[in-house]
Amino acid sequence: MATTRTTARTKARKRALDVLYSADLRGEGLTDALARTVEDGNGPTNPYSATLVRGVAEHRERIDELLTRHSQGWTLARMPAVDRNVLRLAVFELIGVDDVPTAVTLSEAVALVRDLSTDDSPPFVNGVLASVAEELEADAGSPVAPTTSEQTD
C-alpha cells in the first residue's frame, strides 16, 4: 500500500506544480488558477493536489519569506519558474503536512526539478530545502506553522 500512496502523492505533487506554474506564468491567484483548471476539466483528481495548492496560497507570505532567506544569492524572481514553484510546494509540505517526512519532501522536490528544470536545479533545490528544514527543525517544539485558525504564531 505504501507504494500506491507514494505514487499517488507523487502524481498529486506534479499536478499541483502544474497549477502553481500556470498561475505564476499567467499572473493569476492560486485559488483562481485551481478553480479555472477544475472548470476547464483539467483540475486535479487527487484531493492532495488541491490541498497543496490551497496550502501554498494560504501560507505564501511565510513560504516566500523562508525561501528568500535561505536561497543565498537568488531572489525568487530570478529563479526558474519551475524551481520557484517546486520550492513553494515543498516548503508548504514542510510547514503544513505532518504525515510526510522531511526526507520524502526533499527527495520528491529534487525529482521534480530533475525531470522538469535545469541541470543546476537539483542541487540548488536540495540545498535551499535542507536549509529551510534545518531551521524549522531547530524551532523549539512549537508548531512550525499554523494549519488552523486555532493555532497562532
UniProtKB/TrEMBL annotation:
Assigned keywords, A-Z: RNA-binding, Transcription, Transcription antitermination, Transcription regulation
Domain of life: Bacteria
Iron-sulfur among keywords: no
A Pfam family of this chain: NusB
NusB/RsmB/TIM44 domain span: 11-133
Annotated Gene3D superfamilies: NusB-like
Function, as annotated: Involved in transcription antitermination. Required for transcription of ribosomal RNA (rRNA) genes. Binds specifically to the boxA antiterminator sequence of the ribosomal RNA (rrn) operons.
HAMAP family: NusB (MF_00073)
Family: Belongs to the NusB family.
Classification via NCBIfam families: nusB (TIGR01951)
Designated name of the protein: Transcription antitermination protein NusB
Species in which this protein is naturally found: Nocardioides lentus
Taxon lineage: Bacteria, Bacillati, Actinomycetota, Actinomycetes, Propionibacteriales
Gene: nusB
